[in-house]
Amino acid sequence: MLENMLYSGCSSIGSCKEALSGLVLHFSEGGSGAQPCEAAWIGCPKGEDVNSPPVHVYVSHSSYATMKQVYAPLANVEVSPLHFLETELDAQAILSMMALGSSESAPLYMHSILSILRELGEGFTYRGFLSEIDKAKKDMNPAQKAMLSQRLALLDSFVLPEQGRKKSLFRNGQLTVVDLSDPFIDPTSACSLFEIVTRLFVRSKTNAGKFLVVDEAHKYLSANRGDTGLTKALTSLVRQQRHLAMRVVISTQEPTAVPPVLLDLVSIAIFHRFSSPAWWEAVAKRVCADVSAAQGFERVVKLKTGQALVLCPSGLGLFPTTRRTPSGAVVHGKPQVAHFGQRYMLMKTRRKITVDGGASIMALNG
């Protein structure tokens, strides 16, 4: 899918007149055992006659040296520490880092922050906000100060002065990967930072269309935390994507961990082979499918390598037609174009034109 959206002028994989601008959100185990995001291999074509799109990976500055070595085997991939300009941050970014769901359930010190943000209003600046916070800390107890400082310290570590970055995080035809695999960043903090990055991506001025990939979603999204800021942001994007010239792709190996509110908005579901009946039920019951749970699961279990089962109610296909004569005989007519509706489709995946970074490594050779 990424190849078709980023490789233009490559007739062997289809027609793409203009490459899109892409953002991939990735979070996994950090440290020396970290693995590169598979999407970054999109910048490593197999053939020399193919022009690869630029791939820029942004990582946590605290793990920059480690992650640069992790991505070293990937050619044409640039790795940089993730930093935000002060001018890119707004009041919503502060609320994201505070992980504030609603003002009703907020602790007492958070009401002070909300009050400061309201007073600053449209004149919000990051430095001005920090100045007001220092004044408000005088009325807080030690525990409140510690909790506030902990959240702000994480955000402050990702902030640069205006002259710190010369170019935008996003460009036409570029794949931007935000990889927050870091032993010092937990899933909640990663979600807060991803929410800020996603908002910047939506605002970015690009002439091309956009696509957002939520990679390995089960590692930071949670079905039990469907009211998080990132989940709400993704839900809003999916509902408005046709107005934003954007498409959202959610990739997961555990669909039961994805918030149901996102599964309810799925327009295309692609299943590769798996062996858990709960996974089929989690998605199929939220996407129209004219097949029983047992039949659908049996079909998925029997899928071969490279095959996938696709559910797409609004998709178009060529289907046979039949009519019954006055005598009761069934006559087959010409195939007609119609919506898939509750039907499913068996899909065969083509070979990649880029290096397969997710290829299986055998325990035994030969």
From TrEMBL:
Q: Which InterPro entries match?
A: P-loop_NTPase, T4SS_component
Task: Name the domain of life.
Answer: Eukaryota
Can you name this protein?
Uncharacterized protein
Q: Native species of this protein?
A: Dichomitus squalens
